[in-house]
Amino acid sequence: MEKQVTAQTGRGGYLEALLNSCPDAVIAINAEGTMTFANKEACQLIECEMRDLVGKSIVIIYESLEHARETNRKLFLSGGIAHDHESVLKTKKGKQIPVRISASHLKDSTGNYAGAVGYFQAYRPWPTAEAKVKAHVEELEAELEEWKDLGAPVYELCPGLATVVVVGRLDAERVNRVKNNVMNYMDSHRTSVVRIDVSTVLMDDAPAVASALLKLIRSVRLQGVEIMLTGVGSSLAEAIEPLVGDVNSLNVFGSRDLALQAALNFIGLEIRKKD
Known about the structure:
10 strands; five-stranded antiparallel beta sheet; Transcription Regulator spoIIAA; alpha/beta; five-stranded mixed beta sheet; disordered N terminus; Beta-Lactamase; 28% strand
């Protein structure tokens, strides 16, 4: 194989010129696994000179001995021809390069194995990378879902009185989550009043939030529980006003203290100063 390749590449340089014009890295080996030819792309891929490759074992260009053996096994198991086999090479300085290898065994005139020629394409291992990214995204989405559920928990201030403080960005979807939290809480607690504080929220779509908020109030009231709403800003107030016939039907308060006092009065309790 070594004499054959040398003769062919030396005959006017036609074969060498052809292989050097190939956009892929091309490396040929003899039956002992020694490299007998490497084109310019192969040298650029491995970041070395041709003299660093020709005459050396093919193993030196692989990231590990196991990668070299796996390529060899793949070739023999597939009958001497392999397409797009994924492996990892290394540069002269040790940099790892994921590659796809297409290779073929070479035979002499008697049909005996004489070596092999391989085409190496550097690539970004998207399937593995995408799987890792997807898993990370799913993990973040799960954490986000948990955060959303915990973003407006329902607390019991005292028997019969619960409170919800909504912090951060508020949209119709999150109002629905708050509603579900409140409804689930009421299923397991004897509740007469729920105080909802929206004084620190940020909204992009006040009309949608207003509509969802009124649905929350109606759903809770249908179960015989009163809603005390506090912290309603001007944009939310303007969005709510055209949606209700009588704003006096809503228990809306300008401060948390007033809402708390009204909620306690509703369940027959009051706040007294210590003597």
